[in-house]
Specification:
Largest sheet: none
Structural class: mainly alpha
Radius of gyration: 13 Å
Number of helices: 3
Strand content: under 5%
Distance between the termini: 28 Å
Number of strands: 0
Shape: elongated
Length: 64
């Protein structure tokens, strides 16, 4: 399994925890963690040469 896949699995786990969380602060915290894991996965894809640098920058601008 690629590292980026592991990071995406972690992001999915955080999203599931956010759905089950009680209270808005915990929900928001898990959502931020999911976003961070997704960003790490995208960065790892770039580092592994699977995503060209220009496409990565364009995609990040679209997501923002």
């Amino acid at each position: 399994m690629k590292r980026s896949d592991t990071f995406r699995d972690n992001a999915e786990n955080c999203l599931q925890l956010a759905e089950r969380s009680q209270g808005q602060p915990a929900h928001n915290r898990f959502l931020r963690m999911a976003e961070a894991w997704t960003a790490l996965a995208n960065e790892q894809d770039w580092l592994d040469g699977e995503v060209p640098p220009v496409a990565a920058r364009s995609r990040q601008r679209q997501e923002a």
